[in-house]
Each structure stands twice: as structure tokens, then as C-alpha cells.
Amino acid sequence: MPTSKPAYLLCLLALAPLAASAAPQPVALPQAVSAPAQGAATPAQLRELRSQQAQWQALPESERSRIRDAARRLAALPPEQQQSLRATFAAQDARFRDGWRLGPTLGAQFPKLEGLFGFLPVEQRDTALSVLRQLNADQLAQLTLIAQRTPPQERDTVRAAFLALAPADRDRWLHAHVVR
């Protein structure tokens, strides 16, 4: 399922400081999305940068490559269009913006998955992210339907059951829960 150009750009804006520094050929991004000058960062900013770096490194190389390509496209846009995209992104809810740090594939689906995966216990986060990244487009689409249909009081149970599945059992489980 192809992702639209704006979706790539939104993902880039969430990971821009890291995409620019991780690109094999540096992309000149405006100051508005770059890291604070060395020595000028507060402890909170440093923690945030470390978190962003860890999120960047956790992305599969194919996702990082897509983000680098988006960085190049963003840098090629006229400055006023870049600023417009940044303003649109900044105006979004923080949870929406943070969802894009999961990369282009999961970032595009995050608003639909948030019910099941937006508020995970710490001990489930790595497992959940690993499982979500293993899903193909059809499985991810089915899971978004389940996430949207699951009442709040059942989310923990449904999520735990899904995360406990062996990869070979996911298709059957997803299909059974979509047709309910």
C-alpha cells in the first residue's frame, strides 16, 4: 500500500533531525528541524534527542531509506512550502506527531492503532513494536479494524492475546476477529 507524499513528509518532520544526520549524503534542512547547537541543549532536550536517535536506529533500513528520500524531497521544496508543511505538522496533536516516529508504515496507521497500542505497559512496548513491524499490509489493515472496533474495556485482553500469537497463527486470528 503506497504512502502519500504528505505522509512521507510528516514522517520526515517527526524524524528530521535524525534523518538529516543519518543520511549518507547530508541534506541541508532548515534550522527549525535541526538539533540544538552543541552545548546549548538542556537535559530534557538531550533526553529527547537520545530517544529520537533510538527510535531512528530501531527502524528497519528500508524505512530509514524512505525517510531519507523524503528529506531530499522536502529540502527541494520552496521554503514557504517547507514552512507550511512544518506548520501543519506542528499543529497536529502530540500523539499523532509521535506516532510518525514509528516510521512511514506504522506512522500512517498509528491513529487507527492507537486504541490498542497507544498506551502500552512498558514491558509490552518492545514486543509490540517488533510484532507490528512483522505484519504485512493486509495484516496491518485487519489489525487497524480490530483496534477501532475494540471497546476500551477489552483492549488489554485483545492486545495481550494478539501479542502472544505465534507468527503462523496471526492470519487466522486476525481474520476471526475482523469478521466478528
From TrEMBL:
Cited InterPro entries: DUF3106
Signal peptide (from-to): 1-22
Domain of life: Bacteria
Keywords recorded for this protein, A-Z: Signal
Pfam families according to UniProt: DUF3106
Name used for this protein in its record: DUF3106 domain-containing protein
Species for this entry: Stenotrophomonas oahuensis
